[in-house]
Amino acid sequence: MKISLYEHVNHALVKQALDGDVNFTHLFDFDELVRSLLVRGYKDRRGNKYNCFHVSKHADRIELKADYYIGIDWLIKGHKYVHVQPKLNKYVVEQFKAKSDTEEDVLIDVDPEQHEELKKEENQVHINYIKMLLDAMSDPIVAKECADLVRIEWEDDTIKIEQQDDSLTPFLVVQFLQLLRQIVRKGLKKSYYKVRENLNNRIKGKILVSQQIKQNVLKNRFTKTYCEYQVFGEDNDENQFLKKVFRFVTAYISNHQRFFLGNQKILDELANYIRPSFEHIGDLEGEEVLRHFKYNPFFKEYNEAIKIGGYILKRFGYNVSRASENQSIETPPFWIDMPRLFELYVYQKLLQANNHDTNKIKYQYSTYGNAIDILIKDGENSIIIDAKYKLQYASSLVHQDIRQVAGYARLNKVRTELGMGDEDDRNIDCLIIYPNLNNTSIVPKEFKLSSISQNMEQIQGYYKVNKIGISMPIFNAKFLK
User: Fold this and answer.
1) Measured distance CA(179)–CA(307) in Å, rounded
2) Would you tell me how many other CB atoms lie within 10 Å of the CB of residue 366?
3) pTM of the predicted model, to two decimals?
4) Which residues in 60-173 belong to E strands, given as ranges?
5) Cys-Cys with 11: which of 64, 146, 287, 359 at CB 3.0–4.6 Å?
6) 312-329, pLDDT tens digit by residue?
7) Over the stretch 97-130, which tens digit does the pLDDT of each residue have?
8) Domain ranges of the chain
9) Rounded CA gap, 442 and 456, in Å?
């Protein structure tokens, strides 16, 4: 049984209603139900632990609230699961306006009347997370930062879902294709690999005695020798493995176009760009070769591509025919890190608008256990940027976020990096970039360093702390129908 959650919205399971639910009364009483709830937590790159969704337990109800991940996970293993969709809601933004003076994240209690408002199609904005990933990974600089965007619990019991609810497979497919594009652009890895061949009138490498007897001696082929020798080239196990996954991926794209949210043309162009490089690569024999892969620092993309490729093969049970099925499927619990994807999306737009000037645009600048999302090093126009995947900033703010970004501006190492000496008492501009669902948000091409300051809006009550809403890629719900 599925519970669908929206970001920033509380969903209540009321004791009175659960008592009459035939799915639960014979399995749990209310207190046992509360004890059985599962909440998965993860640590981010900075060591902070976050729950993928939140559970508040009260005497007469259980409240569920989505966090900033999208995915599917058990709420009660084997009985009830939570599905957080890549969907934001304009009605939620309106509710923030009424509570803009709070210092914490706003929680919106859902009553029956609000449920109707949330369900209205005109209020729902479907975030095109596929396009966000495509854009982020289209930049080689940003693509290097795109590891570990998805967490998959392979050891957990699988969850049976409708295929249209599957956010995991399209995400992995796009990530794999973008990594493969990086590999093809650089050139396929060459290495020594073994070849077995029945040679005529010559010997190369070593003779395989058992095969020689079976293939030649017993058949009176005395001019032939069955040998094994090494060749240096591209037809190695790693490239054969990538080719096999590529076949799975293209079959899946061909049969499930609607799951890619209108990005079919981009994916077809990616596949056509990649395909010629693998035409001369042979087929992989046996999956055990995965254990023997050796990663070359010069081919860093191979490590991540092989890992994601392994996820995809595991997803289909190593059977390519399953990539064309169109029915209910089983998925392991998984979570996609949307705040980090949004951060990378913003980073890519900044690089794109400023000729990929990494000397001025520094990503994840670290100091004393802190990591600034993006540091703009541009003399008097220097800015500390924090990308926040939060709707509140369209009409209000989160004071804790502002304290955080303002604290970065006080770090000596940051001021030194920006060329500010001990006698320089200037305040550094701080900027929060957030997703904006209104037409008033700036488009990515306006992210030139020379024009950012003109588009910033000062946050009321704070000095030199500003915000900018970036327009988000969205898709029409008809793609999933």
Assistant:
1) 11
2) 11
3) 0.84
4) 61-66, 69-76, 80-84, 87-89, 108-109, 124-127, 150-152, 159-161
5) 64
6) 988 876 665 565 555 678
7) 555 544 444 444 445 455 565 656 666 777 889 9
8) 1-85, 159-190+235-337, 191-233, 338-475
9) 10
